[in-house]
Design brief:
- The protein is about 50% helix and about 15% strand.
- By secondary structure, it is α+β, with helices and mostly antiparallel strands.
- The strands form three sheets. The protein has a four-stranded mixed β-sheet.
- Strand 2 and strand 3 form a beta hairpin.
- Helix 1 packs parallel to helix 3 and helix 3 runs antiparallel to helix 4.
- It is globular and about 85 Å long.
């Protein structure tokens, strides 16, 4: 059982500790530690499970659509991601993508869009995806090449979407995608719009499924004159960059929380191993080298947690957290990588045995240092914010 004393920090309210305890107990009972080889099916089942149990209510905004509140509570989604990540990387992935994939609709969608999609997301009857990255436009969103050409018609107009998206989580299993394309109102970031694209539309195809070291559904999408009614545009034309960044701002801090979940699980496993493994007439934990390693792991986790929940608390107070979220994401993901590596070292040969807990964590953590802004990008954001304030 991981240390939960951090829940007594002043960042949290009593309801947050209750939420964490309830989810932890539920996850221990319902989430398998290992998933079958069919990752797509495992994700579909987890979406249904999380929806039926009510946890997805925290991933959207709007009580009228089944949400836990009128706005997304950042501390709640962080605690949920941390707790799920400690139990299962795939369960964390599923929860996160339901929130990220529908976040733009929560924040900027009109009532008709929210009524059509958000309730299904909460119930777990529709799988959401967020389609921003392209082969030559990852962190540099303004380099986007996918186009959306507006065409007048008697039904209020439509857009023809052309281009590719890649590294799209839930690609191939999603029921709808919030997709960003260059609509041409202005050069650079000001000429991008956001659209809801239902899976299976003519001109929309899954061009390639992408395999990664920690299996998750990922795909490259191709659009060829895919016709999208103008009523499926989210927000105003040319607002897409703002929509994307605001959505990422909500969920970036939760990436740090997921990393914390992985790190805490690694520390738990390392403590169990160190206190049980006998060598040279004593247990591994009796060696000062092991004690130093465990101390470093625990201290680094607490430092990352302080940054993570500071950012979450600040956002829930209505503050702008561009710098703080970047600090949290960078620190927590890099910390988790070091903590998990140390756990593997403590386990020795068993640490690199396929599908052992720390080996799975070793594979799970690597992507978090890249997606939703690589560590290097977070450093640039922090420096930019510091220089702005001068």
């Amino acid at each position: 059982m991981s240390d939960t004393s951090y829940l007594r920090w002043p960042f949290f309210e009593a309801r947050h500790a209750q939420l964490q305890a309830q989810l932890d107990a539920w996850a221990a009972q319902h989430i398998r530690q290992e998933h079958e080889q069919d990752v797509d099916q495992a994700c579909r089942e987890l979406v249904v499970q999380l929806g039926a149990a009510g946890w997805l209510a925290h991933a959207i905004a709007g009580c009228a659509f089944g949400g836990a509140g009128e706005s997304i509570d950042t501390r709640s989604i962080c605690l949920i991601r941390e707790t799920l990540a400690r139990h299962s990387g795939l369960a964390d992935f599923v929860f996160a993508m339901q929130g990220l994939g529908s976040g733009a609709i929560s924040l900027f969608g009109n009532q008709a869009q929210q009524e059509e999609y958000l309730g299904r997301v909460v119930r777990g009857t529709a799988i959401a995806a967020f389609a921003l990255s392209e082969p030559d436009a990852g962190s540099d969103v303004a380099a986007m090449q996918c186009t959306a050409q507006y065409v007048e018609d008697v039904d209020g107009g439509h857009y023809l979407l052309n281009g590719e998206k890649t590294w799209i989580s839930n690609g191939g299993i999603a029921d709808f995608y919030v997709l960003f394309a260059r609509s041409g109102e202005a050069p650079g970031a000001k000429g991008i719009s956001a659209f809801i694209v239902d899976a299976g539309l003519p001109g929309f195809e899954i061009a390639e499924r992408i395999s990664v070291i920690a299996p998750h559904p990922l795909a490259r999408l191709r659009l060829n004159n895919c016709r999208i009614p103008a009523r499926r545009r989210i927000g105003e034309a040319g607002q897409g960059f703002k929509v994307a960044m605001a959505t990422l701002d909500v969920f970036r801090t939760s990436v740090a929380a997921a990393a914390l979940g992985f790190a805490r699980r690694a520390l738990d496993e390392a403590l169990s191993r160190a206190t049980a493994r006998r060598m040279f007439g004593q247990v591994l934990a009796d060696f000062q080298l092991t004690q130093a390693k465990l101390a470093q792991m625990a201290t680094d986790i607490d430092a990352a947690a302080l940054l993570t929940y500071r950012a979450a608390w600040q956002r829930d107070q209505g503050e702008r957290i561009t710098k703080e979220a970047a600090m949290a994401k960078w620190t927590a993901t890099e910390t988790a990588q070091r903590v998990i590596d140390a756990a593997v070292q403590i386990f020795g040969g068993l640490g690199v045995q396929s599908d052992s807990p720390v080996e799975r964590l070793y594979r799970e953590i690597r992507a978090l240092r890249i997606y939703e802004g690589a560590s290097e990008v977070q450093q640039l954001i922090i420096a930019r914010e510091l220089l702005k304030a001068k």
